[in-house]
Design brief:
The chain has 13 helices and 16 strands. It is α+β, with helices and mostly antiparallel strands.
Length: 413
């Protein structure tokens, strides 16, 4: 108890901005205890909910549902009842012509297929949430994949950007990773207010891990574990989604609970069949690399772009892929900008510098690519900067909340 109190006090200490300037807003390093339920704890880092969950998978789900009950209800109403019903009945073009009733049946069909493929432990989390949130399991299944319905129906723009810097690029400081989670701004912008950092402590001996996602969504597009292993997902070079395969975003969550270092990931990555074309960027406190994953089962681990620098957007960079799918200009421009900013700030990239880089827009005020800019676009829904060695995250949702510091050392042990 004393150690935790001391760690929470440390979160109030000021931070120093570097990298020849400042981020848009300094991080707000706070972690306020809000509530407890059935052994779980809810904190707030500014507007961001952070839940600490312990016990069996069902118990952790029950804690999650009880602590985030109001957010889960609001997120369900927004994501399913408003955004997805609108998508099916108004956005999808003929020959679909979904009525509201047909849209609901279609979503339920997809949700059941995805849920059926979930392993026992993750279904137990969802059942626990359903018990205490008031949603019930059918609505929880819909909420769990609300952000994925669109990509199951139509091809969508390839989005997300990631960058790791260490060694000569961090000036000998710890490895730092930055990522943009990009999506459809019309659908997802309002969901950003419900982004949650959920820290799972399973009682089965698995490694405790934190995932960053919307309330009620149990899989990991971004996460970090107790041992400092960090993973994040970018869309790959093709957006078709196979709902009857094991979701790669759930594979990432499982990896966080079972592996400690980048070196340990090579075998599991190269023995999976991705359910969608993906780029998974991985890091620990010593190194980073990028896995380019194709839906035919081929997965290639790509070495750093330079010693101490990895940049990945949404096209495969390994030259041995050939012409699987030509990258569009946007993913090339975002990658080029991040490479240029990495080289520009070589030797001084720390967390504050990485936040500054990810505060830079891709386009200028005239809507043209700015080669002196960054990778952030209108569809950037939330952003994460991580220091794996220190188990520290910074989280921002542009237009919703500014950078918030979340020290997970306190919560991952």
């Amino acid at each position: 108890m004393i150690a935790r109190l001391f760690a929470l006090i440390l979160l109030l200490l000021p931070t120093i901005i570097s990298c020849s300037g400042t981020a848009d807003s300094p991080p707000s390093p706070n972690l306020q205890l809000i509530a407890e339920a059935e052994g779980g704890v809810l904190y707030k880092a500014g507007p961001v909910s952070v839940v600490e969950l312990r016990g069996t998978y069902r118990q952790m789900g029950r804690q999650y549902g009880a602590l985030l009950k109001s957010d889960l209800a609001a997120m369900y109403q927004l994501a399913v009842e408003e955004k997805m019903i609108e998508f099916y009945t108004k956005t999808l073009k003929p020959p679909y012509n979904y009525t509201e009733e047909a849209a609901r049946k279609r979503m339920e069909q997809i949700a059941d297929i995805v849920y059926a493929g979930y392993p026992w432990n993750y279904r137990e989390i969802m059942l626990g949430i359903a018990e205490t949130s008031g949603l019930g399991i059918n609505r929880q299944k819909l909420l769990n994949i609300a952000e994925l319905f669109k990509i199951m129906e139509i091809d969508v723009p390839r989005v997300c950007s990631g960058m790791a810097a260490w060694g000569q690029f961090s000036g000998g400081g710890p490895l730092v990773f930055g990522r943009n989670n990009d999506d459809d701004a019309h659908i997802h912008r309002d969901m950003a207010k419900y982004v949650v950092v959920a820290v799972f402590h399973p009682d089965d001996g698995s490694i405790p891990a934190a995932i960053i996602n919307y309330a009620g969504v149990i899989y990991a597009p971004t996460g970090i574990n107790r041992d400092g292993l960090f993973l994040e997902l970018n869309a790959g070079n093709w957006t078709h989604y196979f709902p009857d395969r094991f979701p790669i975003v759930l594979t990432i969550q499982s990896m966080l609970h079972n592996y400690s270092t980048v070196a340990q990931l090579d075998t599991p990555f190269k023995n999976m069949l991705p359910n969608m074309s993906s780029i998974v960027n991985v890091a620990d406190e010593w190194e980073s690399l990028s896995y380019e994953c194709y839906t035919d089962g081929r997965v290639k681990g790509r070495a750093p772009d330079e010693a101490g620098l990895v940049v990945a957007t949404n096209h495969f960079v390994d030259p041995t892929w050939g012409e699987i799918a030509a990258p569009d200009e946007t993913t090339i421009a975002r990658r080029n900008n991040l490479l240029a900013r990495g080289r520009e700030f070589r030797g001084s990239i720390d967390a504050d510098c990485m936040m500054k880089i990810f505060d830079m827009a891709l386009l200028d005020k005239n809507g043209q690519v700015n080669p002196q800019g960054g990778a952030t676009v209108d569809g950037t829904i939330y952003q994460v900067v991580a220091i794996p060695r220190d188990r520290i995250l910074y989280l921002k949702a542009p237009g919703v909340f500014d950078w918030q510091k979340i020290d997970l050392k306190v919560l991952l042990y």
